[in-house]
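tool_call: predict_structure(chain=1)
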Amino acid sequence: MKLSKLMYIACFALTASPVFAAELTVNCNADYPTIQAAVNAANPYDTITVCPGTYDESVLIQTEGLTIRSTEISDRGPNTIVRRFAIGFAPNSGPHSVTIKGFSVTGSNVCIESSGDYNTIAFNNVSSCNLGIRVNAGNVGNNVHHNHVMNTSSGGITIEGYGGCCGSAGPGMNHNVHQNMVYNAGGEGCFYIWASNTEVHQNQASGTCGNGGINAIGSSGLHIHHNEICADIALFNATNADVHHNELTGRITNENSDDNLKKNKEELSTCPVPAPTPG
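tool_result:
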């Protein structure tokens, strides 16, 4: 009996795991000349490694589980330059469990966009876009971390909620936004968060921040903590928010009676965030 059960578990693990995942390379003296060509050829859970170069591509990803990474992850891809990454089609018809890591992404409308669940956007330099990074409405469990976003006209990092803006919070979105730096973002602000049950922590915002350093709107159960913000934190109809241990030059505004605010340092005389440097 015990042996049969162990054999069943082992067989299930083999069939459920991507044990035959391959690695494809782009511009590394092998495989594919463009990122899109590698993406089109990849199978679920393959890894695509991209060597330095300028890729004037709007890369569309429709295969689940892909990891697309540069060879310059620790430096956020200063020499691996891409125009745009889109994980699926907006708002929520994209693949899940995709990772984009280690690129300089510049010059597009939305430079990196996720329309699927459990995707990871990390260690990228994003600049000169309309919107830097956007997770679209209706998706869950995205992890956005260690990105530098600079000089965007309509928003830095935007995490949308369920079914539309400003009050349609819907079921829990459970995204994690951490250890990002946003500098000079217009419009919606440096961090625009309206996805419920999202954790926003250890981020930095400085320069111009449009409608707020962290602009939280119409969501429930946000956890905002240990951020350094050279602007305001605005809680427009953001109910049951837990906001603590943040440092900011502005104030926490529009809080609701059921929000929990504690141990925040407001109206600091100097910005707690050092001036950004390239890379």
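agent: The chain has two helices and 27 strands. Proceeding to next step.
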